[in-house]
Amino acid sequence: MRKTLLLAFACLPVFAFAQADSQNQSTAPKPVVGHDGTEYLSVPHGPPMLGISWARGFEPNASSNRPSPLARRSANMTYHGGKIMPYTVSKTIFWGTSWGSYTGDKITGMDTWYTGFNNSNYAGTTDEYTGTNGQVTKTLTHQGHVIDTTAAAGGGNTAAILAEVCKVITTPDASGNGYYAVYTDLPRGSAGYCAWHSAGSCGGKAVQFAFFWKLDGDAGCDPADTSGLHSQGLAAIANVSGHELSEARSDPATPGAWYDASGAENGDKCAWTFGAPLVTFSNGSQWKIQGEWSNAAFTAGTGYANSSGQKGCLSGL
Ligand SMILES: [Zn+2]
Fold first, then answer.
1. Same domain, yes or no, for 141 and 69?
2. Which of 31, 159, 301, 304 suits 101 as a labelling partner, its CA being 20 to 30 A distant?
């Protein structure tokens, strides 16, 4: 989700800084309610949150939300002149004091997730999109994970998360196709979203990055994976990881590439809908993961229906 989200959701305090940053630099910082309920002044200098995985009930495409007249006229996304990610070089960052003694399945599980994403049919759900620098492909090279056991903070602040990425990733991918996913041990609290992605630069190198709350026991961000293959917390971050990575690949940066008349990116348009109980990745790992919007599938009538009944979602089977 991008752009018009900033207007539609300006009443949500956590987005006030993003609006100030992208639309009006002179707007005074507004109080933001942090995940722990404390108020702080936002710093209006971070890059915009380009894509947000809304918690259930907050999603702009929920059937309870009326579609805008433009969205009703055409469900498909349009091209906005920018770059896509022709391929991805991923690395995960597990940030927070608790990761130092962590013995669960999230760190190894997400390495398996990114490794299996490469050349998967799920990755292929985004391959139709083109930009000034070519076309999205299924290629992803995963460089593993880094654990930073300093205290995580700043989930509502893109500048804070970018600073963490630049601290930990000392040599970002030189092509600008580095995607750095920051998994924190911070619970979501009252924030309306599960994750987001954005773009920036580290030492002059363009980077893509994403932020994830700890989603253990968080019903609003839970795909309800009953397979027994993963812990609930891993299943939850895996699902929203598909949403954010797909959006970064099809709409990575200003001025933007692919999103619809409501500002919804391909992950937003199929959020919290699942075309299959489990999707198998190229390494055989299986995940309950949301589908991604395909203009081609919608036009051909071959996708499954999103929460607005529009049949443009591909499950990646
Ligand atoms: Zn999104």
1. no
2. 159
Average pLDDT rounded to a whole number, residues 20-27: 31
Residue 16 pLDDT class (50, 70, 90 cuts): very low
Higher pLDDT, residue 2 or 228: 228
Q: What is the pLDDT of residues 133-189, one digit of tens each?
A: 999 999 999 999 999 999 999 999 999 999 999 999 999 999 999 999 999 999 999
Nearby residues for ligand 1 (ion, Cβ within 5 Å): 1, 51-52, 267-268
Structural domain boundaries, residue 217: 81-254
- 233 and 181 within one domain: yes
Rounded to whole angstroms, how far apart are CA atoms 191 and 49?
14
Residue 225 CA: distances (Å) to CA of 194, 267, 299: 16, 18, 30
- Cα-to-centroid distance, 101 and ligand 1 (Å): 31
How far apart CA 3 and CA 25 sit, in angstroms, is: 15
What gap in Å lies between CA 137 and CA 59, rounded to an integer?
Answer: 27
Q: What is the CATH number of the domain that holds 137?
A: 3.40.390
**Cα–ligand 1 centroid distance for 112 (angstroms):** 22
Residue 293 lies in a domain: no
Query: 203 alpha carbon to ligand 1 midpoint, in Å?
Result: 27
The alpha carbon of 269 and the centre of ligand 1 are apart by a number of angstroms equal to 8
Q: Could you tell me the distance, in angstroms and rounded to a whole number, from the CA of residue 244 to the centre of ligand 1?
A: 6
